[in-house]
Write a structure and sequence with these properties.
Elements (H helix, E strand, L loop, with lengths): L13 E12 L4 E11 L6 E7 L5 E7 L3 E7 L4 E10 L4 E10 L18 E4 L5 E2 L10 H6 L27 E11 L3 E3 L3 E8 L2 E7 L4 E2 L3 E5 L2 E7 L10 E7 L7 H19 L6 E7 L6 E3 L3 E5 H4 L12 H11 L15 H21 L1 H12 L19 H19 L1 H15 L9 H11 L5 H9 L2 E15 L3 E15 L5 E4 L2 E9 L1 E2 L2 E2 L5 E8 L1 E10 L4 E4 L14 E3 L22
Parallel strand pairs: 1-10, 17-18, 18-20
Antiparallel strand pairs: 1-2, 2-7, 3-6, 3-9, 4-7, 5-6, 8-15, 10-13, 10-14, 11-15, 12-13, 16-17, 19-20, 21-22, 22-23, 22-28, 24-27, 24-29, 25-26, 29-30
Helix pairs in contact: 2-4, 2-5, 4-5, 5-6, 5-7, 7-8, 7-10, 8-9
Bound molecules: zinc ion.
Zinc ion binds next to α5.
C-alpha cells in the first residue's frame, strides 16, 4: 500500500476471458498452470501499462503480452509487476497476456494450510493467479497492524455513499469472464472446473479433462481433483417456463455419502423454487464438489459449489431442533447463483445484505416450499439463536450491514419479518425487479439503496415505517405483556384484556440510545395451552396499533385461549422476547415463551 497505492487509479484493461492448462502432480504435491488472460480496455482512455498483483502463495513466472512491451517493475517480494506497453491499448482494444504459475508444498500457517495439491483432494482457487491492477482488498485492514506500518486508519469497508466503488472495474473476482481449462491429473482421479465437461482423454498415463463455460461466469472459480464418487441427477424446468435443463453432480469422498441424497434433493428443490421466484438459473451444469477441510464451510463459485469434508459429516437426523440444516445450507449456496452470482453488490457497506441476507431469505422460501411452514418456523428459530449470547446492541442499520451477525442472521430475519407483513409474492416481485435491473454483474454495481427502493415500492404506506425501522435504522423494540385478564363473552368466546408496555429505541454504532415514539402495527395473538407453554398455532392473530408506554388492549378469542400477548412470532427485534406473551389470570405478571419454541434459557435475562 505504501509503495504501490499510488497506482490504484491507473487506467487498466478488464479481464474478459481466462484459458488455462493445469497439470496437477498429486505424487509431488505440485501443480503447474499455464494461463492466458484476454484483457479489454473498456475505459475511455488509452492504457499504457499493465499492472499485476501476484499472490504470495504461488510462484508466478514470466508474464508476456502479444505485442512489444518491457518489464517496468517486477517486485516479487511484494507481489507487484508493471509491464509497459510499446504502444498504448486504445479504448475497445483487446490484449492477450500469458503467464505460468507454479504451486508447491510450502508448509502451513497457524490457521492451516492454504490451497494444496494433495494425494487425493486437490483444491486450487483462482485467487492464486495474478489480478489485474492494484488490489485495495489486499491492504492491511487491522488498525493495529496499519499503525505498525505507519499507515493511516481507514474504514474497513467503503461507505455506502462511495459512488466510485460502484464502478469498481479492476477488482479481481468481480469480472465477468469466459472460461476454458484443460486439467491433467492422476489417472484414477476426476478433475473439476467450471463449465461443461467437453472431453476427457488419457495420455502418458494421466487423465485430462476439458471444461468450457457456455456463458460468462464471475471470475471466481477453483480447480478440484480427487478420487470422487459421483452422484448425478438432472433438473428440468416445468413445461412452459423459461430456463434450461441442468445436469447436477455431487462429487464426494466415497466414504462421505450420508447426506448426498439430501444434497441432491436440495439442489433440485432450489433450482425449482429459485428459478420460479427469481428467474432462470443461467447455466446447464450445477455441481457440489467436496474438498479437504474440517469445517462445515461451503463456497458458491459459479456453477461449482464447494464444500469441506466437515459439511459432509453433519447428521441432520440427530439435530434436536428438527431442522434439516444441510438442506437449508445447500439452498443458501444455490441462492448465491442469483445473489452474488447474477447480482454482484458494490463492495461497500451493506454488500452482505445483498448477498448473504438475500441468499438466506431465498433459502427460507426453498425450505418452506419443500418441507412446509412449520419447518421454516424452526429454521427461523435456529437463526434467532444468534441472539442468545450477550451482545451489545450497537450496530449500523442493515443498509450498512457488514459482518456475520448482520449479514447472515439479522438481515435474513428482517427480510422474513417484512415478508410476513407485506406478503411473500410482493417481496419476491421486488427481488425479481432488483435482479432484472442489476443481474448482469456490470457497473454501476447495486447497493442496498437499490434493494430498499424496490422493497419500498411493494410496501403499503401503513408498513413503510416498519420498513424504515428494519433496514434504515438499528431499531430495538421493547415489548412486554404484563398481565392478561379474561371475561366471558357471548357465543362461548372470551374477552382478553392485555396490559402491554412498549418502547422503541434506536441504537447507533457508538451505543448511544435514543428513544423514538412508537406507533406501530404489531401482531397480537392468543393461544391455547400447549405441552410446554403456549400452543404453536394461534387461536387469534391480528395487527394492532401499539404506542409507546403502557396501554390496554382487548381482543376476543375462543374460550380455550390461555396465553396472549404482542408480537408472538418475534418478528420485531426485541432483546428480551421472553416476556411478549403472558398467561391469562395469572396472579403475577410472569412472562411466557413464544409459541412453538423452547422456553428461553436463563441467558436471555
Ligand atoms: Zn453465503
Amino acid at each position: 500500500e505504501r509503495r504501490y497505492r499510488r497506482h490504484a487509479a491507473a487506467a487498466q484493461p478488464q479481464l474478459d476471458g481466462v484459458r488455462l492448462h493445469a497439470e496437477l502432480r498429486a505424487e509431488r504435491g505440485a501443480a503447474e498452470i499455464r494461463a492466458s488472460y484476454r484483457l479489454v480496455n473498456r475505459g475511455p482512455a488509452p492504457v499504457d501499462s499493465i499492472h499485476l498483483t501476484t499472490h504470495p502463495s504461488v510462484r508466478t513466472g514470466a508474464v508476456t503480452v502479444d505485442r512489444p512491451a518491457t518489464v517496468a517493475l517486477s517486485d516479487d517480494r511484494r507481489g507487484y509487476r508493471i509491464l509497459a506497453l510499446g504502444a498504448p491499448l486504445r479504448p475497445g482494444d483487446t490484449l492477450r497476456l500469458d503467464f505460468t504459475v507454479r504451486v508447491g508444498r510450502r508448509g502451513f500457517a497457524n490457521d492451516g494450510a492454504g490451497d494444496l495439491v494433495t494425494a487425493n483432494g486437490s483444491y486450487l482457487r483462482s485467487g492464486g493467479l495474478p489480478a489485474i491492477g492494484y488490489q485495495p482488498d489486499r491492504e492491511l485492514a487491522d488498525l493495529g497492524k496499519r499503525r505498525d506500518h505507519q499507515l493511516p486508519p481507514r474504514a474497513r469497508v467503503p461507505s455506502l455513499d462511495d459512488s466510485a466503488a460502484r464502478h469498481a472495474l479492476a477488482r479481481a473476482g468481480a469480472e465477468q469472464i469466459a472460461f476454458e481449462a484443460v486439467v491433467g491429473t492422476d489417472s484414477a482421479q476426476r478433475a473439476v472446473a467450471p463449465g461443461a465437461l467437453r472431453r476427457t482423454w488419457t495420455a502418458g498415463g494421466r487423465r485430462y479433462f476439458h471444461y468450457a463455460t457456455e456463458r460468462p461466469i464471475r471470475n471466481d472459480y477453483a480447480l478440484f481433483s480427487a478420487r470422487y464418487a459421483v452422484r448425478s441427477g438432472r433438473w428440468q424446468p416445468p413445461r412452459g417456463e423459461a430456463g434450461q435443463a441442468v445436469e447436477i453432480e455431487v462429487l464426494h469422498h466415497p466414504g462421505h455419502g450420508w447426506n448426498v441424497d439430501g444434497m441432491l434433493a436440495g439442489v433440485r428443490a432450489s433450482l425449482a423454487h429459485l428459478s420460479a421466484e427469481l428467474g432462470p438459473y443461467p447455466y446447464r451444469q450445477l455441481r457440489l464438489v467436496e474438498h479437504p477441510g474440517t469445517t462445515p464451510t461451503l463456497h458458491a463459485y459459479p456453477i461449482n459449489v464447494s464444500f469441506e469434508e466437515g459439511f459432509a459429516l453433519l447428521d441432520p437426523s440427530r439435530d434436536e431442533r428438527a431442522v434439516d440444516f444441510p438442506f437449508a445450507v445447500v439452498a443458501h449456496e444455490l441462492a448465491h447463483q442469483w445473489w452474488g452470482g447474477q447480482l454482484m453488490p458494490a463492495p461497500v457497506e451493506g454488500a452482505g445484505l445483498l448477498s448473504e441476507s438475500l441468499a438466506w431469505y431465498s433459502a427460507m422460501g426453498v425450505v418452506e416450499h419443500a418441507f412446509g411452514a412449520e419447518h421454516l418456523t424452526r429454521l427461523v428459530a435456529l437463526m434467532r439463536e444468534a441472539w442468545l449470547p450477550p451482545r451489545a446492541p450497537a450496530d449500523p442499520p442493515l443498509l450498512r450491514a457488514s459482518g456475520w451477525f448482520l449479514s447472515y442472521r439479522k438481515g435474513p430475519l428482517a427480510m422474513y419479518a417484512l415478508r410476513e407483513y407485506v406478503g411473500a409474492p410482493q417481496v419476491n416481485a421486488a427481488l425479481r425487479r432488483l435482479l432484472a435491473a442489476h443481474g448482469e454483474g456490470r457497473p454501476p454495481l447495486p447497493t442496498t439503496r437499490d434493494l430498499y427502493r424496490e422493497l419500498e415500492a411493494v410496501t403499503p404506506d401503513s408498513i413503510r415505517p416498519l420498513l424504515h425501522d428494519l433496514f434504515a435504522a438499528n431499531t430495538v423494540w421493547e415489548l412486554a405483556t404484563e398481565r392478561v385478564s379474561a371475561a366471558p363473552a357471548p357465543g362461548g368466546m372470551t374477552h382478553l384484556t392485555l396490559d402491554v408496555r412498549a418502547r422503541k429505541i434506536v441504537v447507533d454504532t457508538t451505543g448511544a440510545v435514543r428513544e423514538v415514539p412508537m406507533n406501530d402495527l404489531v401482531e397480537v395473538g392468543a393461544f391455547a395451552e400447549g405441552a410446554d407453554g403456549p400452543a404453536a398455532a394461534p387461536l387469534v392473530r391480528r395487527l394492532h396499533r401499539i404506542r409507546s408506554g403502557v396501554q390496554r388492549i382487548t381482543i376476543t378469542a375462543p374460550a380455550a385461549a390461555t396465553w396472549a400477548g404482542v408480537d408472538p412470532r418475534r418478528l420485531l427485534f426485541d432483546l428480551e422476547p421472553g416476556n411478549n406473551l403472558a398467561r391469562r389470570a395469572s396472579a403475577t405478571s410472569a412472562g411466557g415463551s413464544a409459541p412453538g419454541e423452547p422456553r428461553p434459557a436463563a441467558t436471555w435475562r
